[in-house]
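Reopening this ticket.

The earlier resolution said the output was attached, but the attachment link was broken on my side. Pasting everything inline this time so it's all in one place.
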Amino acid sequence: MLEGSILQKLETAHRYSKRPIQFGVYYKHTLVSLCHALEDHILKNDGTPLVITAFQQGKWYLQEAERYADIAKKASQVAIMAAPHTGFAEHSTSQLPNVNLVAIDPADPVAQEWHLIILSQNYTAMVICQELSEADYGSTGVPASDVERKFYGLWTFEPELVQETAELAISHIESYNPELAKELKAHKDIIQPRLATPEDLSAVVSLVVDYLQTGQVNISVPTATSHQALDRNLVSNEIQAFLRMAQMIDAADITNPMAAAEVVALAETMGQLLDLPAWQTKRLRLAGLLQRIDPLQRAESVLSPGSSTRYQEDAPCCPLTCPLVPGAQVLRTMPRLRAIAQILTHQSEWWDGTGEPAGLAGDEIPLESRILALVADFQWRVNQKKTSQLSPEEIFTQALEECKQLQSYRFDPKLVDTLTLLVMGLQQGLDLPLMTPKVSTGMWLLNSRLDSETKSGEIRSSYRQ
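Inline output:
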């Protein structure tokens, strides 16, 4: 990271904290789609945000100037940092009263950064990246195709982190324009951002995924290998959008903020006891992280009773055969999430066939759906009892007994037996570590920063004696 850059200051501030930031690598093509989605949600949102951006060079701003004229109509203030370029200050958007250009020195490290910071009462989002240097590209060299340029950084909806980064950006602007910095700070100080509602998150995540999928279709690069790399980067961010949404939903539930992490820990241990193959455990883990996403839980199924939903053990990439449900339409072009959507949809099936949405019975219900339904119920019961005067052993015993009362008609009796073994292990000192998922360019990880080390320690201790 370049010394003195906003990204470097943010990383330094969190380097030795309890919540260090995990960064990823993004292609320019991915960032364009991502930023356009986050920007366009401003136009659909009722807030009047403070928007701070960095475009590297004025010519990149000129390509987006018309878009920013529309954004300015909704925003309270827009501040744009970029190294000057012909026409940078002359464009009509730059003349709007609430649009402020900051012509930064080309030698300024921020001239190598790409930022979008959106801060309002009910919508916060941020992309903060720095372009890789020639040395960073290594033996492959700087790509010839513009869309293949790479940036190092992160994107998030987390209000606290967005607010902190806005402060760093305003501080940097102060060295160029103290009066503007003072004005921006005043706007920032009156904004008290909150965690977005599930409905708000659903809207912006759907927009992000839609733009990223459109980006996949429109990729135009010289080689098939490059196309594949760009495609994976786009798909990775589609999945991360859903994971971040689930993360924020958990964080907003002050009564059970660690539900996803605990459900995943329980589900993975159940999977180990059942000797599930790695590919099925991976699906189970991702479904566990996403199991509280409300739009998917409410989805109607088109799977008919009696339809086969079993996986082919020799074909781990084969999704469930049932079509996608209407509530999960956004997942239709994402093969890795098609099975996840069905797993989540059929959590509410009952072993005796009286559940919803398809009235599946017994082994017709996807195994992962049965596991998630049981461990999520058990986790909820344990969480409800944490404020009681019961010991951890007594909490586990009571929660298990309540689940046992539902076996054979709500839950798979074989899985209740497996849960019994797991609880015996917990009572005898088995520790289920709550692994904090970290951001990655891979498909299955999430940058989870909303939980403090202290809180994680408390939860971890509650799952062992």
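Reporter confirms the inline version is readable. Residues 6-248 form one domain. Confidence is low (pLDDT under 50) at residues 295-333, 438-462.
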